[in-house]
Write a structure and sequence with these properties.
The complex is a heterodimer of chains A (366) and B (124).
Chain A: H1 11-16, E1 20-24, E2 27-32, H2 36-45, E3 47-51, E4 56-61, H3 65-72, E5 85-91, E6 97-107, E7 110-115, H4 120-131, E8 137-140, E9 145-151, H5 155-159, E10 175-180, E11 183-188, E12 197-203, H6 207-218, E13 223-225, H7 228-237, H8 272-281, E14 285-292, E15 303-306, E16 309-320, E17 325-333, E18 342-347, E19 350-357
Parallel strand pairs in A: 3-13
Antiparallel strand pairs in A: 1-2, 3-9, 4-7, 4-8, 5-6, 6-7, 9-12, 10-11, 11-12, 14-17, 14-19, 15-16, 15-18, 16-17, 18-19
Helix pairs in contact in A: 2-7
Chain B: E1 7-8, E2 13-18, E3 21-26, H1 28-34, E4 37-41, E5 48-49, E6 54-60, E7 64-68, E8 73-78, H2 81-84, H3 88-91, E9 100-103, H4 108-111, H5 116-123
Antiparallel strand pairs in B: 1-2, 2-3, 3-9, 4-6, 5-8, 6-7, 8-9
The chains are: A alpha+beta (366), B alpha+beta (124).
Chain lengths: 366, 124
Protein backbone atom coordinates (compact mmCIF):
# COMPACT_ATOMS: atom_id res chain seq x y z
CA UNK A 1 0.00 0.00 0.00
CA UNK A 2 1.42 3.33 -1.05
CA UNK A 3 2.15 5.85 1.70
CA UNK A 4 0.86 8.87 -0.15
CA UNK A 5 -2.86 9.06 -0.60
CA UNK A 6 -3.95 9.99 -4.09
CA UNK A 7 -6.93 12.00 -5.24
CA UNK A 8 -9.04 11.89 -8.37
CA UNK A 9 -9.68 15.12 -10.24
CA UNK A 10 -13.16 15.17 -8.62
CA UNK A 11 -11.91 15.21 -5.03
CA UNK A 12 -12.96 18.82 -4.45
CA UNK A 13 -16.37 18.16 -5.99
CA UNK A 14 -16.98 15.24 -3.63
CA UNK A 15 -15.92 17.21 -0.58
CA UNK A 16 -18.08 20.16 -1.58
CA UNK A 17 -21.03 17.78 -1.99
CA UNK A 18 -20.52 16.66 1.61
CA UNK A 19 -19.40 13.14 0.74
CA UNK A 20 -17.90 11.03 3.51
CA UNK A 21 -14.37 10.32 2.27
CA UNK A 22 -12.37 7.19 2.97
CA UNK A 23 -8.98 5.78 2.00
CA UNK A 24 -9.51 2.99 -0.52
CA UNK A 25 -6.69 1.22 -2.39
CA UNK A 26 -4.45 4.22 -1.77
CA UNK A 27 -7.03 6.75 -2.96
CA UNK A 28 -9.13 9.29 -1.07
CA UNK A 29 -12.58 8.29 -2.33
CA UNK A 30 -16.22 9.11 -1.56
CA UNK A 31 -17.74 6.20 0.37
CA UNK A 32 -21.19 7.75 0.53
CA UNK A 33 -22.91 11.09 -0.10
CA UNK A 34 -26.15 10.66 1.86
CA UNK A 35 -26.94 7.04 2.64
CA UNK A 36 -25.64 3.80 1.17
CA UNK A 37 -29.16 2.37 1.14
CA UNK A 38 -30.61 5.40 -0.68
CA UNK A 39 -27.76 5.44 -3.19
CA UNK A 40 -28.10 1.69 -3.76
CA UNK A 41 -31.85 2.00 -4.32
CA UNK A 42 -31.39 4.97 -6.67
CA UNK A 43 -29.15 2.81 -8.89
CA UNK A 44 -31.65 -0.08 -8.85
CA UNK A 45 -34.68 2.09 -9.62
CA UNK A 46 -33.36 5.26 -11.35
CA UNK A 47 -29.66 6.00 -11.67
CA UNK A 48 -26.47 6.73 -9.77
CA UNK A 49 -23.21 8.40 -10.81
CA UNK A 50 -19.91 7.07 -9.48
CA UNK A 51 -16.42 8.53 -9.73
CA UNK A 52 -14.24 5.51 -10.41
CA UNK A 53 -11.26 7.41 -11.77
CA UNK A 54 -9.05 5.48 -9.36
CA UNK A 55 -9.30 2.44 -11.65
CA UNK A 56 -6.13 1.73 -13.60
CA UNK A 57 -5.78 1.75 -17.39
CA UNK A 58 -3.02 0.10 -19.38
CA UNK A 59 -2.53 0.62 -23.13
CA UNK A 60 -1.27 -2.43 -25.06
CA UNK A 61 -0.22 -1.70 -28.62
CA UNK A 62 1.78 -3.29 -31.39
CA UNK A 63 1.97 -6.23 -33.71
CA UNK A 64 2.41 -8.56 -30.77
CA UNK A 65 -0.54 -7.18 -28.79
CA UNK A 66 -2.90 -10.08 -29.47
CA UNK A 67 -0.41 -12.90 -28.76
CA UNK A 68 0.76 -11.01 -25.68
CA UNK A 69 -2.77 -10.67 -24.30
CA UNK A 70 -3.50 -14.32 -25.15
CA UNK A 71 -0.42 -15.16 -23.07
CA UNK A 72 -1.27 -13.10 -19.95
CA UNK A 73 -5.07 -13.52 -19.78
CA UNK A 74 -7.24 -16.64 -19.55
CA UNK A 75 -10.10 -15.56 -21.84
CA UNK A 76 -9.85 -15.76 -25.64
CA UNK A 77 -8.86 -12.30 -26.87
CA UNK A 78 -9.00 -13.45 -30.51
CA UNK A 79 -12.78 -13.45 -30.19
CA UNK A 80 -12.83 -9.68 -29.59
CA UNK A 81 -13.68 -7.35 -32.46
CA UNK A 82 -13.02 -3.59 -32.37
CA UNK A 83 -15.66 -1.96 -30.17
CA UNK A 84 -16.08 -5.04 -27.98
CA UNK A 85 -15.00 -5.69 -24.38
CA UNK A 86 -14.09 -8.87 -22.55
CA UNK A 87 -14.09 -9.67 -18.83
CA UNK A 88 -10.98 -11.68 -18.05
CA UNK A 89 -8.19 -12.35 -15.58
CA UNK A 90 -4.45 -11.94 -15.46
CA UNK A 91 -3.45 -15.35 -14.18
CA UNK A 92 -0.46 -16.65 -12.27
CA UNK A 93 1.28 -19.93 -13.21
CA UNK A 94 -0.89 -21.49 -10.47
CA UNK A 95 -4.08 -20.34 -12.20
CA UNK A 96 -4.82 -17.80 -9.48
CA UNK A 97 -5.48 -14.10 -9.96
CA UNK A 98 -2.91 -11.40 -10.46
CA UNK A 99 -6.06 -9.34 -11.10
CA UNK A 100 -9.39 -9.41 -12.86
CA UNK A 101 -9.83 -6.92 -15.67
CA UNK A 102 -11.68 -5.66 -18.72
CA UNK A 103 -9.99 -5.90 -22.13
CA UNK A 104 -11.14 -3.28 -24.65
CA UNK A 105 -10.29 -3.82 -28.29
CA UNK A 106 -9.90 -0.30 -29.65
CA UNK A 107 -8.58 -1.43 -33.05
CA UNK A 108 -6.37 -4.15 -34.50
CA UNK A 109 -3.13 -4.24 -32.43
CA UNK A 110 -4.59 -1.63 -30.04
CA UNK A 111 -6.12 -2.60 -26.69
CA UNK A 112 -6.95 -0.93 -23.40
CA UNK A 113 -6.93 -2.90 -20.14
CA UNK A 114 -8.94 -1.65 -17.17
CA UNK A 115 -7.59 -2.98 -13.89
CA UNK A 116 -8.18 -2.57 -10.16
CA UNK A 117 -6.83 0.60 -8.56
CA UNK A 118 -5.01 -1.16 -5.76
CA UNK A 119 -3.34 -3.54 -8.21
CA UNK A 120 -2.23 -1.00 -10.80
CA UNK A 121 1.50 -0.84 -9.88
CA UNK A 122 1.66 -4.64 -9.45
CA UNK A 123 -0.16 -5.33 -12.73
CA UNK A 124 1.90 -2.79 -14.65
CA UNK A 125 5.13 -4.43 -13.44
CA UNK A 126 3.76 -7.93 -14.19
CA UNK A 127 2.71 -6.92 -17.69
CA UNK A 128 5.99 -5.11 -18.40
CA UNK A 129 7.98 -8.19 -17.40
CA UNK A 130 5.86 -10.54 -19.52
CA UNK A 131 5.94 -8.12 -22.48
CA UNK A 132 9.69 -8.52 -23.01
CA UNK A 133 9.16 -11.61 -25.15
CA UNK A 134 6.61 -9.87 -27.40
CA UNK A 135 6.62 -7.12 -30.01
CA UNK A 136 4.35 -4.95 -27.92
CA UNK A 137 4.28 -1.60 -26.16
CA UNK A 138 2.72 -1.66 -22.69
CA UNK A 139 2.06 1.67 -20.95
CA UNK A 140 0.32 2.54 -17.69
CA UNK A 141 -1.95 5.39 -18.83
CA UNK A 142 -4.05 5.56 -15.65
CA UNK A 143 -3.12 9.19 -15.06
CA UNK A 144 -4.67 10.23 -18.39
CA UNK A 145 -8.11 8.78 -17.86
CA UNK A 146 -10.96 9.71 -15.58
CA UNK A 147 -13.78 7.23 -15.32
CA UNK A 148 -17.39 7.95 -14.41
CA UNK A 149 -19.93 5.17 -14.07
CA UNK A 150 -23.54 6.10 -14.81
CA UNK A 151 -25.58 3.12 -13.67
CA UNK A 152 -29.27 2.35 -13.46
CA UNK A 153 -32.36 1.81 -15.60
CA UNK A 154 -32.51 5.53 -16.48
CA UNK A 155 -28.85 5.68 -17.59
CA UNK A 156 -29.51 5.66 -21.33
CA UNK A 157 -32.26 8.27 -21.26
CA UNK A 158 -30.09 10.53 -19.06
CA UNK A 159 -27.05 10.24 -21.31
CA UNK A 160 -28.83 10.46 -24.67
CA UNK A 161 -29.34 14.27 -24.74
CA UNK A 162 -25.63 14.80 -23.95
CA UNK A 163 -24.21 12.86 -26.88
CA UNK A 164 -24.61 12.30 -30.61
CA UNK A 165 -23.50 8.68 -30.12
CA UNK A 166 -26.33 6.22 -30.81
CA UNK A 167 -26.47 4.72 -27.32
CA UNK A 168 -29.14 2.15 -28.09
CA UNK A 169 -26.81 0.66 -30.70
CA UNK A 170 -24.15 -0.04 -28.04
CA UNK A 171 -24.70 -3.55 -26.74
CA UNK A 172 -23.69 -4.84 -23.29
CA UNK A 173 -19.88 -5.12 -23.21
CA UNK A 174 -19.58 -2.89 -26.27
CA UNK A 175 -18.27 0.68 -26.55
CA UNK A 176 -18.09 3.63 -28.93
CA UNK A 177 -15.83 6.64 -29.12
CA UNK A 178 -17.86 9.80 -28.90
CA UNK A 179 -18.40 13.05 -27.10
CA UNK A 180 -20.41 13.52 -23.93
CA UNK A 181 -21.20 17.17 -23.13
CA UNK A 182 -18.39 18.12 -25.51
CA UNK A 183 -15.85 15.91 -23.74
CA UNK A 184 -14.23 13.18 -25.87
CA UNK A 185 -15.02 9.83 -24.25
CA UNK A 186 -15.05 6.10 -24.61
CA UNK A 187 -18.72 5.33 -23.94
CA UNK A 188 -18.80 1.78 -22.64
CA UNK A 189 -21.92 -0.25 -21.85
CA UNK A 190 -20.46 -1.90 -18.78
CA UNK A 191 -20.69 -1.62 -15.04
CA UNK A 192 -20.21 -3.15 -11.63
CA UNK A 193 -23.73 -2.88 -10.27
CA UNK A 194 -25.89 -5.46 -12.06
CA UNK A 195 -27.84 -2.66 -13.77
CA UNK A 196 -27.79 -1.30 -17.28
CA UNK A 197 -25.47 1.66 -17.58
CA UNK A 198 -22.38 3.22 -19.02
CA UNK A 199 -18.81 3.75 -17.98
CA UNK A 200 -17.39 6.95 -19.47
CA UNK A 201 -13.64 7.19 -19.92
CA UNK A 202 -12.55 10.76 -20.57
CA UNK A 203 -9.48 12.97 -20.18
CA UNK A 204 -8.45 13.18 -16.51
CA UNK A 205 -8.71 16.99 -16.46
CA UNK A 206 -12.23 17.00 -17.97
CA UNK A 207 -13.79 14.90 -15.20
CA UNK A 208 -15.43 17.85 -13.47
CA UNK A 209 -17.12 19.07 -16.65
CA UNK A 210 -18.36 15.57 -17.39
CA UNK A 211 -19.55 14.99 -13.83
CA UNK A 212 -21.57 18.20 -13.61
CA UNK A 213 -23.07 17.77 -17.09
CA UNK A 214 -24.26 14.22 -16.40
CA UNK A 215 -25.47 15.03 -12.90
CA UNK A 216 -27.54 18.03 -14.01
CA UNK A 217 -28.95 16.16 -16.99
CA UNK A 218 -30.00 13.30 -14.74
CA UNK A 219 -31.27 15.18 -11.71
CA UNK A 220 -34.85 15.42 -13.07
CA UNK A 221 -34.83 11.64 -13.53
CA UNK A 222 -33.64 11.02 -9.98
CA UNK A 223 -29.92 10.61 -10.65
CA UNK A 224 -27.80 10.95 -7.50
CA UNK A 225 -24.06 10.74 -6.88
CA UNK A 226 -23.19 7.38 -5.36
CA UNK A 227 -20.18 6.24 -3.37
CA UNK A 228 -18.02 3.18 -3.03
CA UNK A 229 -20.19 1.68 -0.27
CA UNK A 230 -23.18 1.44 -2.62
CA UNK A 231 -20.91 0.19 -5.39
CA UNK A 232 -19.88 -2.65 -3.09
CA UNK A 233 -23.43 -3.66 -2.05
CA UNK A 234 -24.63 -3.39 -5.67
CA UNK A 235 -21.85 -5.59 -7.04
CA UNK A 236 -22.41 -8.13 -4.27
CA UNK A 237 -26.15 -8.46 -5.06
CA UNK A 238 -25.11 -9.07 -8.68
CA UNK A 239 -22.41 -11.53 -7.50
CA UNK A 240 -19.57 -9.69 -9.18
CA UNK A 241 -16.22 -10.62 -7.65
CA UNK A 242 -14.11 -8.08 -5.78
CA UNK A 243 -10.35 -8.53 -5.95
CA UNK A 244 -8.92 -8.65 -2.43
CA UNK A 245 -12.19 -10.02 -1.04
CA UNK A 246 -13.47 -12.85 -3.23
CA UNK A 247 -10.52 -13.41 -5.53
CA UNK A 248 -6.77 -12.99 -5.17
CA UNK A 249 -3.53 -14.82 -5.83
CA UNK A 250 -4.61 -17.72 -3.60
CA UNK A 251 -7.86 -18.50 -5.42
CA UNK A 252 -8.05 -19.99 -8.91
CA UNK A 253 -10.32 -18.91 -11.74
CA UNK A 254 -12.23 -22.19 -11.45
CA UNK A 255 -12.60 -21.99 -7.66
CA UNK A 256 -13.98 -18.46 -8.11
CA UNK A 257 -16.76 -19.94 -10.26
CA UNK A 258 -15.48 -17.93 -13.22
CA UNK A 259 -15.06 -20.92 -15.54
CA UNK A 260 -16.88 -18.96 -18.27
CA UNK A 261 -13.86 -16.66 -18.70
CA UNK A 262 -11.48 -19.64 -18.96
CA UNK A 263 -10.76 -20.72 -22.55
CA UNK A 264 -8.37 -23.65 -22.29
CA UNK A 265 -8.77 -24.46 -25.98
CA UNK A 266 -7.34 -21.10 -27.11
CA UNK A 267 -3.73 -22.29 -26.70
CA UNK A 268 -1.06 -21.76 -24.09
CA UNK A 269 -1.20 -18.99 -21.50
CA UNK A 270 0.15 -18.36 -18.02
CA UNK A 271 -1.63 -20.73 -15.64
CA UNK A 272 -3.16 -22.93 -18.35
CA UNK A 273 -1.50 -26.13 -17.16
CA UNK A 274 -2.56 -25.64 -13.56
CA UNK A 275 -6.14 -24.78 -14.56
CA UNK A 276 -6.39 -27.69 -17.02
CA UNK A 277 -5.18 -30.03 -14.29
CA UNK A 278 -7.62 -28.62 -11.76
CA UNK A 279 -10.47 -28.94 -14.23
CA UNK A 280 -9.56 -32.58 -14.94
CA UNK A 281 -9.05 -33.51 -11.30
CA UNK A 282 -12.06 -31.60 -10.02
CA UNK A 283 -12.33 -28.80 -7.52
CA UNK A 284 -12.15 -29.16 -3.77
CA UNK A 285 -13.82 -25.82 -3.07
CA UNK A 286 -15.88 -23.23 -4.87
CA UNK A 287 -17.14 -19.69 -4.32
CA UNK A 288 -20.86 -19.84 -3.55
CA UNK A 289 -23.57 -17.43 -2.50
CA UNK A 290 -25.39 -17.75 0.78
CA UNK A 291 -28.04 -16.08 2.91
CA UNK A 292 -28.17 -15.84 6.67
CA UNK A 293 -31.46 -15.78 8.53
CA UNK A 294 -30.41 -13.74 11.56
CA UNK A 295 -29.89 -10.00 11.63
CA UNK A 296 -26.12 -10.23 12.20
CA UNK A 297 -24.09 -9.82 9.01
CA UNK A 298 -21.58 -12.50 7.99
CA UNK A 299 -18.60 -10.42 6.86
CA UNK A 300 -15.30 -10.88 5.05
CA UNK A 301 -12.99 -13.25 6.89
CA UNK A 302 -15.60 -14.93 9.09
CA UNK A 303 -15.36 -18.69 9.48
CA UNK A 304 -17.83 -21.04 7.73
CA UNK A 305 -18.51 -24.24 9.68
CA UNK A 306 -20.30 -27.53 9.29
CA UNK A 307 -20.96 -29.49 12.47
CA UNK A 308 -18.75 -27.02 14.33
CA UNK A 309 -15.76 -27.74 12.07
CA UNK A 310 -14.25 -24.96 9.98
CA UNK A 311 -14.78 -25.69 6.28
CA UNK A 312 -14.22 -22.34 4.61
CA UNK A 313 -14.23 -18.58 4.80
CA UNK A 314 -16.69 -15.80 4.03
CA UNK A 315 -15.17 -13.50 1.40
CA UNK A 316 -17.91 -10.85 1.17
CA UNK A 317 -21.03 -10.25 3.20
CA UNK A 318 -23.49 -7.47 3.65
CA UNK A 319 -27.04 -6.45 4.25
CA UNK A 320 -28.43 -6.33 0.70
CA UNK A 321 -30.41 -3.09 0.48
CA UNK A 322 -32.59 -4.05 -2.51
CA UNK A 323 -33.24 -7.65 -1.47
CA UNK A 324 -33.57 -6.61 2.18
CA UNK A 325 -31.73 -9.62 3.54
CA UNK A 326 -28.23 -10.62 4.56
CA UNK A 327 -26.20 -12.19 1.79
CA UNK A 328 -22.61 -13.23 1.27
CA UNK A 329 -20.06 -15.21 -0.67
CA UNK A 330 -17.87 -17.97 0.75
CA UNK A 331 -15.44 -20.61 -0.40
CA UNK A 332 -16.99 -23.94 0.60
CA UNK A 333 -16.10 -27.57 -0.09
CA UNK A 334 -17.97 -28.84 -3.16
CA UNK A 335 -20.00 -31.18 -0.94
CA UNK A 336 -21.34 -28.17 0.98
CA UNK A 337 -21.71 -25.90 -2.02
CA UNK A 338 -25.03 -26.99 -3.54
CA UNK A 339 -28.00 -24.63 -3.20
CA UNK A 340 -30.06 -25.56 -0.18
CA UNK A 341 -27.09 -26.85 1.80
CA UNK A 342 -27.01 -25.48 5.33
CA UNK A 343 -23.93 -24.41 7.24
CA UNK A 344 -23.03 -21.98 10.01
CA UNK A 345 -21.06 -18.78 10.07
CA UNK A 346 -19.18 -17.90 13.23
CA UNK A 347 -20.14 -14.32 14.01
CA UNK A 348 -18.44 -12.94 17.11
CA UNK A 349 -18.32 -16.36 18.73
CA UNK A 350 -21.90 -17.36 17.88
CA UNK A 351 -22.87 -19.80 15.15
CA UNK A 352 -25.44 -18.24 12.83
CA UNK A 353 -27.30 -20.51 10.40
CA UNK A 354 -26.71 -19.92 6.69
CA UNK A 355 -27.94 -21.59 3.52
CA UNK A 356 -26.32 -21.81 0.09
CA UNK A 357 -28.48 -20.09 -2.54
CA UNK A 358 -28.29 -19.80 -6.34
CA UNK A 359 -26.52 -16.71 -7.68
CA UNK A 360 -26.64 -13.98 -8.76
CA UNK A 361 -28.71 -12.88 -5.78
CA UNK A 362 -30.16 -10.13 -7.96
CA UNK A 363 -30.76 -10.17 -11.69
CA UNK A 364 -32.21 -7.09 -13.30
CA UNK A 365 -35.53 -7.37 -15.10
CA UNK A 366 -35.10 -7.13 -18.88
CA UNK B 1 -26.10 19.06 17.80
CA UNK B 2 -24.88 17.77 21.16
CA UNK B 3 -27.57 17.85 23.89
CA UNK B 4 -26.32 19.27 27.18
CA UNK B 5 -28.56 17.07 29.36
CA UNK B 6 -26.23 14.05 29.30
CA UNK B 7 -22.62 12.87 29.26
CA UNK B 8 -20.45 11.40 26.52
CA UNK B 9 -17.59 8.95 26.00
CA UNK B 10 -14.68 9.19 23.60
CA UNK B 11 -16.21 6.16 21.85
CA UNK B 12 -19.25 8.28 20.97
CA UNK B 13 -21.78 6.81 23.37
CA UNK B 14 -24.05 9.02 25.46
CA UNK B 15 -25.43 8.30 28.92
CA UNK B 16 -28.21 10.07 30.75
CA UNK B 17 -28.69 9.27 34.44
CA UNK B 18 -32.07 9.81 36.12
CA UNK B 19 -32.29 8.44 39.67
CA UNK B 20 -30.61 5.03 39.50
CA UNK B 21 -31.34 4.51 35.80
CA UNK B 22 -28.79 5.25 33.09
CA UNK B 23 -30.11 5.42 29.52
CA UNK B 24 -27.46 4.73 26.89
CA UNK B 25 -27.20 5.38 23.18
CA UNK B 26 -24.81 6.47 20.46
CA UNK B 27 -24.32 10.05 19.35
CA UNK B 28 -25.45 11.85 16.23
CA UNK B 29 -21.79 11.93 15.18
CA UNK B 30 -21.49 8.14 15.65
CA UNK B 31 -24.60 7.35 13.61
CA UNK B 32 -23.30 9.56 10.82
CA UNK B 33 -19.97 7.77 10.83
CA UNK B 34 -21.61 4.33 10.79
CA UNK B 35 -24.16 5.08 8.09
CA UNK B 36 -27.29 3.00 7.59
CA UNK B 37 -27.73 0.83 10.68
CA UNK B 38 -29.20 -2.60 9.95
CA UNK B 39 -28.86 -4.43 13.26
CA UNK B 40 -28.50 -3.53 16.90
CA UNK B 41 -27.52 -6.38 19.17
CA UNK B 42 -28.51 -5.08 22.57
CA UNK B 43 -27.65 -6.82 25.84
CA UNK B 44 -30.16 -9.00 27.65
CA UNK B 45 -31.86 -7.77 30.81
CA UNK B 46 -30.05 -8.93 33.93
CA UNK B 47 -26.57 -8.77 32.45
CA UNK B 48 -24.07 -6.98 34.67
CA UNK B 49 -21.34 -4.93 33.04
CA UNK B 50 -18.38 -2.89 34.21
CA UNK B 51 -17.54 0.45 32.67
CA UNK B 52 -15.80 -0.15 29.35
CA UNK B 53 -17.18 -3.69 28.83
CA UNK B 54 -18.76 -4.57 25.52
CA UNK B 55 -22.46 -3.91 25.92
CA UNK B 56 -23.63 -4.76 22.44
CA UNK B 57 -22.93 -4.54 18.74
CA UNK B 58 -24.11 -2.12 16.10
CA UNK B 59 -23.99 -3.14 12.46
CA UNK B 60 -24.31 -0.75 9.59
CA UNK B 61 -24.26 -1.74 5.95
CA UNK B 62 -20.60 -0.76 5.89
CA UNK B 63 -19.22 -2.03 9.15
CA UNK B 64 -19.72 -3.55 12.56
CA UNK B 65 -18.77 -1.74 15.73
CA UNK B 66 -19.03 -2.45 19.40
CA UNK B 67 -20.99 -0.53 21.96
CA UNK B 68 -19.09 -0.09 25.22
CA UNK B 69 -20.71 0.43 28.60
CA UNK B 70 -20.14 4.09 29.47
CA UNK B 71 -20.86 3.24 33.12
CA UNK B 72 -21.08 0.11 35.26
CA UNK B 73 -24.44 -1.41 36.07
CA UNK B 74 -27.06 -4.07 35.45
CA UNK B 75 -29.11 -4.10 32.27
CA UNK B 76 -32.77 -3.35 33.01
CA UNK B 77 -34.11 -3.11 29.49
CA UNK B 78 -33.04 -2.98 25.86
CA UNK B 79 -34.90 -0.88 23.31
CA UNK B 80 -37.15 -3.56 21.82
CA UNK B 81 -38.32 -1.36 18.94
CA UNK B 82 -34.83 -1.48 17.40
CA UNK B 83 -35.27 -5.16 16.50
CA UNK B 84 -37.74 -4.21 13.80
CA UNK B 85 -36.52 -0.67 13.11
CA UNK B 86 -32.76 -0.38 13.70
CA UNK B 87 -32.75 2.71 11.44
CA UNK B 88 -34.34 4.59 14.36
CA UNK B 89 -30.78 4.95 15.67
CA UNK B 90 -29.90 6.89 12.48
CA UNK B 91 -33.04 9.01 12.62
CA UNK B 92 -33.11 9.90 16.30
CA UNK B 93 -29.93 8.72 18.05
CA UNK B 94 -30.39 10.93 21.10
CA UNK B 95 -34.09 10.12 21.53
CA UNK B 96 -36.15 7.19 20.25
CA UNK B 97 -32.93 5.46 19.13
CA UNK B 98 -31.71 4.86 22.71
CA UNK B 99 -30.19 1.39 23.04
CA UNK B 100 -30.51 0.20 26.61
CA UNK B 101 -31.04 1.18 30.23
CA UNK B 102 -28.79 0.18 33.13
CA UNK B 103 -29.44 0.25 36.83
CA UNK B 104 -26.47 2.09 38.33
CA UNK B 105 -25.16 2.36 41.87
CA UNK B 106 -24.38 6.06 41.58
CA UNK B 107 -23.98 8.80 39.04
CA UNK B 108 -20.30 9.28 39.85
CA UNK B 109 -19.01 7.39 36.81
CA UNK B 110 -21.31 9.31 34.48
CA UNK B 111 -20.37 12.67 36.00
CA UNK B 112 -16.71 11.96 35.29
CA UNK B 113 -17.39 11.56 31.53
CA UNK B 114 -17.25 14.32 28.92
CA UNK B 115 -19.86 17.04 29.10
CA UNK B 116 -21.48 18.41 25.95
CA UNK B 117 -18.84 21.13 25.52
CA UNK B 118 -15.93 18.71 25.88
CA UNK B 119 -17.56 16.21 23.50
CA UNK B 120 -18.22 18.93 20.94
CA UNK B 121 -14.51 19.77 21.06
CA UNK B 122 -13.65 16.08 20.65
CA UNK B 123 -15.64 15.67 17.45
CA UNK B 124 -14.36 18.97 16.13
Amino acid sequence: MSETIRTTSLNGVHREAGARMVAFAGWDMPVQYTSVVDEHMAVRTKAGLFDVSHMGEVAVRGRGALPFLQHVTCNDVSRLTPGRIQYSALTTPQGTFVDDLLVYKLAEDDYLLVINAGNTPKDAAWLAAEARAFDVDVADVSARWCQLALQGPAAESILAPLTATALSAIKYYGFERGEVAGVPCLVSRTGYTGEDGFELYGPWEEAERLWHAVLSAGAPEGLVPAGLAARDTLRLEAKMALYGNDIDDTTTVLEADLGWILKLEKGDFIGRDALARQKAEGLTRKLVGFETEGRAVARHGYDARVGGVSVGTVTSGSFAPFLRKNIGLAYLPLASGEPGTRFDVSIRGRLEPAVVVPTPFYKRPR
Amino acid sequence: MVPSDRRYTKDHEWVQVEGDTATIGITEFAQGELGDIVYVEAPEAGKTVAQGDVLGTIESVKAVSELYAPVSGTVIEANASLAQAPETVNRDPHGAGWICKLKVASRAEADALLDAAAYTTLIG
